[in-house]
Amino acid sequence: MHDDERLIQTHEELIADPKAQFERMFQFLDVEPIPEIVEACAAKMWKAPRKTRTALKWEGDEEARLVEDLKTGFFARYFADS
Q1: From first to last of its 82 residues, what are the pLDDT tens digits of the chain?
Q2: 68, 24, 13: which is closest to 79 by C-alpha?
């Protein structure tokens, strides 16, 4: 894919400014960002990350290995403070 064919959206950006990020998503899709729809979408966002991964007990060696594999690359920032 070319850079103009994809939109990279992080959870942190979405939580920090949901209205602006939803507008950005609509514009990327070439859809008019109707203020009422943007507002409704933004209202569904949590105010902070929930970090549910810290509450889960991974069952078995395979699940534990898969989670460990996620701790590198793009997802590393999500595990830095867990």
Answers
A1: 777 789 988 888 999 999 999 999 999 999 999 999 999 999 998 887 776 766 777 777 887 788 778 777 777 777 766 5
A2: 68
- For residue 76 the two structure tokens come to 């590393």
- Longest Cα–Cα distance of the chain, Å, equals 47
Give which of 76, 25, 78 is closest to 49, Cα–Cα. Answer: 78
| AA identity, residue 78 | Y
Residue 13: count of CB within 10 angstroms of its CB: 13
The tokens describing 73, both together, are: 């690359």
